[in-house]
Amino acid sequence: MEFTPEYLEPLPTADRWSGGGGPRPSAPWVVVRDAGGRRAAGGGDGGVAVLFDRDAVLIEDIAYNGDPGRVYPRPGARRAVGELRELGVRLGVLTEQPGIARGVLTRRRVEIVQHRIEELFGPFDAWALCPHGPAERCGCRAPAPGLVLAATRALRVRPARTTVIGGTAAGLVAAAEAGAHGLLVPTAVTRPGEISAAGHRRAADLGGAVRLVVAGGSVR
Ligand SMILES: [Zn+2]
Predict the structure, then answer these.
(1) CA 127 to CA 91: how far, in whole Å?
(2) Which CATH class is domain 25-215?
(3) In whole angstroms, how far apart are CA 146 and each of 19, 64, 137, 139, 179?
(4) Which end of the chain has the smaller Cβ count within 10 Å, N or C?
(5) pLDDT single digits (tens) 37-82
(6) Which residue ranges are recorded for the region named Disordered (predicted)?
């Protein structure tokens, strides 16, 4: 599979998430593919989208991994992605990679891992990546909404017709701040408090999350 991403112009981030003085952090990195004429589910206004957290939701979370040989899909993840793709849902991936800011990961290594993920899962319509560390106070790290907004803009879908499937409470907050729906799929490191705070906005696994998205009525 050839991987030919198209890099978009930097997207603006919300001022209130950018902190006070000092240099403004750069925007998230966004890759978007043309839908290739594929009909999006949900009608003529850009359709319906699902955005997945990359680490701990789609693939096992291995800190600072730049090795495509260590990309392991989470149980049920490939099936869940395949089912949504079949339904015509636009698919995006969100990922925070602070290892780039720390100098232990390069953009090239992240792209190689991304390529491997698409070999395993098939192509995603958009990727939105935060390359910043916490100290940069960027607008894209959850709970800020920047990554979610960057992905919805790239996909030209309305946040209200977008569901973010993540493994942390911060991801749910980011989705809500962006005006999108959030679903928590607990991972090994999700805290009990995060799970209870998610209320009904959670599923036991990715298969359950897909059923909730479909049952939500936005996919027909
Ligand atoms: Zn960022």
Answers:
(1) 9
(2) alpha beta
(3) 13, 21, 12, 5, 11
(4) N
(5) 454 555 446 689 999 999 999 999 999 999 999 999 999 999 999 9
(6) 1-25
217 Cα–ligand 1 center, Å = 32
Measured in angstroms, how far is the CA atom of residue 210 from the centroid of ligand 1?
27
Which phi and psi (to 5°) does residue 179 adopt? 85, 15
Note whether 126 and 86 are within 8 A (CB). Answer: no
CA of 208 to the centre of ligand 1 (A): 29
Residue 39 Cα to ligand 1 middle (Å): 31
Ligand 1 centre distance from Cα of residue 38 (Å): 30
The pTM for the full model equals 0.85
CA 135 to ligand 1 centroid distance, Å: 10
The alpha carbon of 130 and the centre of ligand 1 are apart by a number of angstroms equal to: 4
Farthest CA pair distance, the chain: 47
Task: Kindly give the distance from the C-alpha atom of residue 182 to the centroid of ligand 1, in angstroms, as a whole number.
Answer: 19
What is the residue extent of each domain of the chain? 25-215
**How far is 69 from 120, CA to CA, in rounded Å?**
12
Token pair listed for 44: 């003529």
